[in-house]
Amino acid sequence: MDWGADLWDQYDVIDKHTQSGLDLVERYIKFVKERTEIEQNYAKQLRSLTKKYAKRGSKEEQDCKFSNHGAFQEILNELNDYAGQRELIAENMMTGICVELTKYLQELKQERKTHLSDAKKAQQNLESSFKHLESTKKRFAKEWAEADKATQQAEKTESDLNATRLDVEKAKQHAHARTHTAEECRNDYAAELQKYNKEQNLFYYSEIPQIFKKLQDMDEQRIRRLAEGYCQFSDIEKKVLPIISKCLEGISSAGTKIDEKQDSILFIEQHKSGFERPGDVEFEDYSQGIKPATSDSSLNPPKVRAKLWPFSKKHHKPPAAEDFSHLPPEQRKKRLQAKIDDITKELQKTQDQSDALEKMKGVYEQNPQMGDPSSLEPQITETAQNIGRLRGELAKYESWLSEAVGGEESTNTINNNTQHGVVAADQPQNIYTEFDDEFDDIETPIGQCTALYTFEGNSEGTISITEGELLSIMEEDKGDGWMRVLRASGEEGYIPSSYVKLTP
After folding, report:
1. What is the dihedral of CA 229, 231, 236, 239, to 10 degrees?
2. Helix or strand holding residue 409 (H, E)
3. Which residues form a coiled coil (predicted)?
């Protein structure tokens, strides 16, 4: 089927049909542009969402040591990467479909305009030739009528008895001249008719079919190019599906590796004081006039027994050592555990980076057009070296922690004996003498903290604090979310534990 052969007389229909095809391409370009705007807005909203819920600050980093907190941060990170893939889809659709099709559409418009202009010009030439034919035909008819009239007039003059020989001769010459002119016009008309028929045959069997065939080829090529654009709409998203799947798998993995028991153990290790529970307070019989000088109760004054630790004075702290051996056993354990947690966190971060590089390398190997896999080798090597170094440090600190935990029994034995009065009465007295002399029964702060937020203490027992204020900790949080602090002004009371940050 051919437009030139079957639609030779449907110029207007072809004009409207090809214009409709161009309009469809333009509509599709507009449709893809609006799709890219949706993708860009979606990605922007996802990034804002992840930023809004991402943990920041030292307290939040401390919380992320728990698997359920850390898993949520991993989900946010994966979602952020997912948003990046949506942005990539939008960018590729804009450059691969909208820009390319817009350029192609301009070429189509120019080509269509050229073909239609050629068809109109051929039509105008045929119409002009037909007008010239009509003009020649009319002239031939007019001249033939004049010749016929002149011939009749010559015959009439010749049969007229009163006409002279000169008049007859003159009439015959005039009739002959008219007849000769009419014959010339007849020949011109015949030649013009032959020429027109040839041009008309060329127009309908050659020129118009060729032009309409070019329009048909143009339209079919437009359809094929538009079909490719339709496929691109899907293929662009398919190309990033492996990475999107990795992001979604990462989200699922973050949820499955949560360990609630380990989180509970970590919470206990972070907040247990390490001190033994206080023993019973012995009865002091004042009715017998007994005033014991060294009562066991003096080991546990009502306000300070749970707060003081014989190694707490800063000027008794030995020089810092890498294995924290200068610290008391429980504090050493906590510091070693904190160091191990920091190294573990850095190791996990480095491992995640290594996994991401391997993931990206796999994608590049499957889709070479997205990047060169060999370009990632230096980063992969450096990451592997960092992982090895961190694992070495982790093993070192874990061995020190094992050593500290192993020596814990002797320390506990001393503490238990002290609580039950096995140690001589003067030994604990010597330990606390310097505290009793220095503070003279005044309750001693057990630490310092800084207010993160302003708190209006309106209820009984609470106090008001302002953001950035330095406070002394008088009583730790017992698990109810409140702690007792002392302000520089001397005001003392309870505040929410989450409103402050411990000062080292």
Report:
1. -150
2. helix 408-419
3. 105-174, 333-367
Average pLDDT over residues 19-46: 96
pLDDT single digits (tens) 180-203: 999 999 999 999 999 999 999 999
Residue 302 pLDDT exceeds 60:
no
Round to whole Å and give the CA distance between 497 and 504.
16
Q: Give yes or no for residue 441 having a pLDDT over 60.
A: no
Tell me which of 6-15, 69-78, 154-163, 261-270 is least confident.
154-163
Locate 52 and state its tokens.
């809004």
Q: Of 40, 43, 35, whose CA–CA distance to 247 is shortest? A: 43
pTM: 0.52
Determine what percent of the chain is predicted with pLDDT higher than 90. Answer: 40
For residues 332-365, b (16+ Cβ closer than 10 Å) or e, as one string? bbbbbbbbbbebeeebeebeebbebbebbbebbe
Which pLDDT score, from 0 to 100, does residue 319 have?
Answer: 52
User: So what's the pLDDT on residue 320?
Assistant: 57
Region of residue 490 (left: phi > 0; alpha: psi -120 to 50; beta: else): left
154: which 2 tokens? 């010559």
Orientation angle between helical segments 67-93 and 11-53, nearest 10 degrees: 160
* Distance, CA of 495 to CA of 451 (rounded, Å): 10
Sign of the C-alpha dihedral, residues 376, 380, 381, 382? positive
Residue 483 has what pLDDT?
Answer: 85
- Give the DSSP letter string of 434-496: HHHHHHTTPPPP-EEEEESS-B---STTB--B-TT-EEEEEE---SSSEEEEE-TTS-EEEEE
CA-to-CA distance for 379 and 354, rounded, in angstroms?
A: 8
Q: How far is 66 from 46, CA to CA, in rounded Å?
A: 25
Q: What is the rounded CA–CA span in Å between residue 106 and residue 99?
A: 11
Q: What are phi and psi of 395, to 5 degrees?
A: -65, -40
Helix, strand, coil shares of the chain as percentages rounded to 5?
Answer: 70, 5, 20
Q: Closest Cα partner for 211 from 126, 96, 333, 328?
A: 126
